[in-house]
Specification:
Blueprint lengths: L4 E8 L22 H6 L8 E10 L6 H15 L4 E7 L5 H11 L5 E5 L12 H12 L6 E6 L2 E4 L4 E2 L8 E2 L7 E4 L2 E4 L24 E5 L7 H8 L4 E6 L7 H12 L3 E6 L20 H12 L4
Parallel strand pairs: 1-2, 1-3, 3-4, 4-5, 11-12, 12-13
Antiparallel strand pairs: 5-6, 6-9, 7-8, 9-10
Helix pairs in contact: 3-7, 5-6
The protein binds succinic acid (SIN).
Length: 309
Amino acid sequence: MASSKVVILGTGGTIAGTAASATDAVGYAAAQLGVAQLVAAVPALASRSLECEQVAQLDSKDMDHATWQRLAQRAAHHLARPDVAGVVVTHGTDTLEETAYLLHRVLAPAKPLVLTAAMRPATALMTDGPQNLLDAVTVALDAQAGGVVVAFGGRVWAGAEVRKVHTYRIDAFAAGDAGPLATVEEGSVRWSRAAPKTQALGLAAIAADPARWPRVEIVLNHAGAGGMLVDALVAQGVQGVVVAGTGNGAVHHVLEAALLRAQGAGVRVLRSTRCASGPVIGEAALPSAGALTAVQARVELMLQMLPTE
Ligand code: SIN
């Protein structure tokens, strides 16, 4: 018989946030309610076979590498259980795309690993968290689901593609040039396409003490850009730099000169774009990050440079 248990890992975020007033959707504290409380607030989940585990309790702007490592380990542990159909992670929206990309590259599980979140705190008049959580469990139990995906706002996004595109609206996510993988309507999932696949790096790739993970920073190209930041980063021992270029990954000639100096000194450099959609196309002096956003490229570069023990 197919397994029907879903494990829900809590990490905090607005989905677990509370405000003093039901009409306050910005002046709230994230990460106040435990994951079991989030589940208890959704009556439709009462009939499901669920297990909850609090992996972290933070505002995802404060996400750190140690939490990523623990989350990946706990998700892998539960996904390996024969009685578990899938794992759901409740998360903040702010760095959801980075966590999703990291889990995609490290675990790329056959079973569904579904991240979800909310733009409104749990106390809001029209909170989106309960529906998103219900949809995430629906996706985790769907026979066609697999890999790292994000269930949010009635849509399912690929962990490899998703990005936050709005500061306030409850349809805050998109996937650049790619559309959603599926929609969730009245408890059923309607798939449009399969999620992109990757060769999982495996948990061993991130086993190193997070204090030893390489330092990779992001700099932005803009009118009047200079090389001061890059020079300072190199002086501080940075190991990788992602530049979010203008347009098709273009970089001001002064900033480019600093990045080439850094590259010559052994710093890994990747060139992405500050545009919301579209890959960096073609060759230039600095290597392209392809279709990765700047924050995804930062994760990718860090994963490529992690020490193996
Ligand atoms: C967070 O990312 O933890 C706070 C913001 C949000 O979840 O929308």
